[in-house]
């Protein structure tokens, strides 16, 4: 499977990033950028490999590929050269086929998107179509790099240095995204906001887990959402926090407001994952602790303003 030609993106050399995807035309908020089936799949756990070592299992799969597909596979990045080409490329580029998936996959196109701590696109696994998809979670200008996030919710809200260390240890590269190129003042302000989001999120999570509602909790939700806007953190991160607001309002028997949050959540999810991008019916409901998931632009800001009005109105 060769890297396909597309009028919306191109694989190019990008200073400091190496190879990556840039937009060759304006991409709208919520637009589908890529839809790709896996080159091949493999069990997420070695117990599903029939007693073979990871290298043995992968070697058999790769040898069975066509020459073109083998060429495409060996053309992918390898941040773990000490493991050898087959296993190193797999570890560098493997992606889960959905939340808590039993299988992972290798994608020739989707693997080419670099990381940013302020991403403008997101991955979404479509179990219905058996495809990994990339959606724009912000409006992307022509010539702008298209970046996703490799971080789960908890790590996204950690300090700059912690994220940098995690990315280096887990993915074998030093992050050079816009946050690391910003001034110390900007980075420190971002770290403070993210730390505050994480602390308040833990409080909200405890309330939901313990079913211990208090009126102040909705105020925390509002502050989290305002901080998320300041950090340009939207997409599935916003969906999860909207899900928290639905649960909290339901705990307080405030079903009108819960319905408003649920409607906003559905709209944001459709922008970040498409109309059929959910892994399963359960995943539509279970957004907290998704682990490996991650909108600005006119449409998202209007939704956020509506959200804040709903929160502030009795």
Structure report:
The protein is of the alpha+beta class and about 325 residues long. Helix content is about 45%, strand content about 15%. It has 12 helices and 10 strands. It has helices at about 55-65, 65-75, 85-95, 155, 160-170, 180, 185-210, 215-230, 235-250, 255-275, 280-285, 300-310, and strands at about 10-15, 20-25, 30-35, 40-45, 95, 105, 115, 120-125, 130-135, 145-150. It has a 3-stranded antiparallel β-sheet with strand order 3-9-8. β1 (about 10-15) and β2 form a beta hairpin. The radius of gyration is 20 Å and the shape is globular.
Which features characterize this protein?
314 residues, 12 helices, three-stranded antiparallel β-sheet, single chain
């Amino acid at each position: 499977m060769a890297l396909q030609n597309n009028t919306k993106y191109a694989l190019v050399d990008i200073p400091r990033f190496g190879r990556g995807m840039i937009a060759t035309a304006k991409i709208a908020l919520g637009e589908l950028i890529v839809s790709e089936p896996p080159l091949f799949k493999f069990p997420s756990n070695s117990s599903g490999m029939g007693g073979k070592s990871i290298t043995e299992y992968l070697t058999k799969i790769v040898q069975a590929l066509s020459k073109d597909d083998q060429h495409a596979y060996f053309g992918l990045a390898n941040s773990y050269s000490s493991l050898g080409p087959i296993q190193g490329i797999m570890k560098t580029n493997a992606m889960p086929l959905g939340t808590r998936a039993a299988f992972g996959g290798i994608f020739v196109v989707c693997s080419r998107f670099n990381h940013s701590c302020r991403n403008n696109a997101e991955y979404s696994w479509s179990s219905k179509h058996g495809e990994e998809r990339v959606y724009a979670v912000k409006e992307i200008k022509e010539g702008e790099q298209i970046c996703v996030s490799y971080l789960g919710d908890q790590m996204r809200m950690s300090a700059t240095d912690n994220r940098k260390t995690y990315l280096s240890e887990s993915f074998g590269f030093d992050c050079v995204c816009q946050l690391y190129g910003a001034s110390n003042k900007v980075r420190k302000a971002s770290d403070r906001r993210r730390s505050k989001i994480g602390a308040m999120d833990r409080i909200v999570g405890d309330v939901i887990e313990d079913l211990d509602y208090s009126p102040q909790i909705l105020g925390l939700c509002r502050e989290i959402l305002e901080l998320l806007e300041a950090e340009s953190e939207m997409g599935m991160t916003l969906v999860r926090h909207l899900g928290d607001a639905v649960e909290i309002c339901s705990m307080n028997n405030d079903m009108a407001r819960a319905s408003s949050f649920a409607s906003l959540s559905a709209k944001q999810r459709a922008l970040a994952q498409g109309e059929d991008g959910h892994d399963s019916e359960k995943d539509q409901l279970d957004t907290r602790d998704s682990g490996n998931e991650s909108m600005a632009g006119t449409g998202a800001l209007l939704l956020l303003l509506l959200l804040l009005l709903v929160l502030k109105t009795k």
